[in-house]
Amino acid sequence: MSALENTLQIEIKLEKEKTNQALLKDHVEKYSELTQSMSKILNSFEQRLGKLEHTILPVYNITKNLQKQQQNLDSTLQYMEQVLSHYDASQDVCNLIHQGPSEGNIGSFLDGLNKLKKAKDYFLNNNPQSVELENVTSLFNNGCETLNNHFKSLLKKHNSPLKPVDLLDMIYIEEDSSNEDCPSIKQLPPSAREELNVIAQWLDNNLRREYVQIFGDERSEVIMRSLQNLKDHQKSGSWGNEPLRTRHGYGRAETGAKKTTSARLQQIFERKANKMFMKASQTLGQSAGLAMRKNSSFGDILAAEEYGNDNDQELEKYLVLLLGLQKLLVWERQLLNDIVPPSRHNEVFSRLSQPSIEMVVKDAEQITSKVMRSIGRKEWSAALGIFSALKHVQILQPDIDRICDATQKQQLSGVLNRLQQTASKGLEQFIESVRNDSGGGGMVSMTSSTISYGGGSNVPRDATVYELTSNTIWFLEQLQEHCDTIGGLLQTEAIYTNDLDRISSQKALSIEQKNKALLGIYVRKVLAELNYTIATKSEQYSDTATKQLFKLNNTHYILKSLQRSSLMEIVALTEHDCERRYQKMIQDLKKAYLGSWSKLLSFIHPLDDMPRPINGKVKDKERATIKDRFSNFNKELDDA
């Protein structure tokens, strides 16, 4: 039964598969018919496309050629128009060129010059022998010359020298004041600066560099006349009493008491010195291990001592002049940024700064020559003024270096070199003056402002302190205020650096200690010459007691002055037993002085040698002996 059922199921499935196979075959036949039909359609479409391409392609090529011909024709017409415009350029812009540019409307004039430039280039490349080239070139050159003249006249219109009070305000106002507060910037308003910049850019792009000379000469004249006005003002009676105008209240006097020029300069250099100290502390304070300090004497331009002589006033005026030049050059750098192309900055700046730098260098030479003549007359306050001026020029040096290139730095370094040479010469001549104190005694005349050595004076009759001694100590005391400056001078001389190396080999020294040590070496040399001179001068006394008393008084004065003024601490860096040696000298001089009385005392001492009375009576011989000894004692005492 089960086998029959299986057979029936198989037959049913077989019939079903046959039916499906017949259906599939039918579908395949239909798809084949559709494929053949589609193939016929595609073949027909391909044939039609071929016919269309054969028909349209020649038309397309013809159209393309026509379009190219049209473009060529348009280009030819355009080029012809350009060529014709080159021929008409001279006539088109002739009136514009002859009229010249007008302030505030420079664009149209530059357009005319550009048109001439294009025409010139065309004829130069295509027809260099043509008359048109000569006409265009001549008109172009005339236009450039006119443009240069306009550039110059525009500068002249806004280039007036600063009044002395305005320049002094630039010097005295805070360093962070805005550009709008500067009179120099107000001279050239933004519209003028913008027009000058457009002209300079065009001239530079067209290789016309005459503007470099024009700008440099015009601005150089402004700087020179501004500085000359300041110098003339310094010669007037109102110098040093000008009211300082406030930063935002321009033209309004500062309330309160007027400050002297020295006080204002002191504030300026204190600010600069503080900035230098802060920068040095940030860069070197931790990494280099250098012991640095804020030098309270920075910026004390003649403030510690109001010397008031001509040399010091000239040095003060010169420092103001140098500050004025530095301020003017700062603003000129800013004007260069606004007007002149960057590639010409150094060239123009060198030209505009050259005369003024030469002037301040020449003034420095004249002042230092005058100071050297004063030092030759042994007016040592002039040397102290040089130290102060040198210190402040060194403070100003970084500001100058920031605005100047190598050429100007080298020129301005001449000022520093002259001051350094003069200061070094002053130190050397002071030692020579102490060594060669004039033969009659070299009496020193000192006022509150000057020290001058006169010849032909004798030592004090009462063997008190020699004026050479007191004034030498006074001069050395003043040098303490200039320790850093003098240290920088002496470290260039082998005789001092050898001693410093010996000291440094024994213990490490900071920069401050090295400067003090160098000053200590100098003070030690001066004291050695002073001690020798005192010993030499003591020989003018006829008796031994006065000789010893003279040396004792002067040596004692030197010791007490060194201790009182802290000079002893400075000298001790180079000679640690200096104080003990002076004390020993004093003890030896005391013994020598007391020893000079031994002959006098020998007549009454010892008393045991004196004849004694017997029963209230003295023999005639003994009486004569006593009388003779007391007579000799009185005679020696009277002589003393």
Automatic annotation (TrEMBL):
InterPro entries: Cullin_repeat-like_dom_sf (IPR016159), Exo70 (IPR004140), Exo70_C (IPR046364). GO terms for cellular component: exocyst. The keyword Transport applies. Gene3D superfamilies: Exocyst complex component Exo70. The keyword Protein transport applies. Residues 323-640 form the Exocyst complex subunit Exo70 C-terminal domain. Keywords: Exocytosis, Protein transport, Transport. It holds the Pfam family Exo70_N. SUPFAM superfamilies: Cullin repeat-like (SSF74788). One of its GO terms (biological process) is protein transport. GO terms for molecular function: phosphatidylinositol-4,5-bisphosphate binding. Component of the exocyst complex involved in the docking of exocytic vesicles with fusion sites on the plasma membrane. Belongs to the EXO70 family. This is Exocyst complex component 7. It comes from Anopheles stephensi (Indo-Pakistan malaria mosquito).
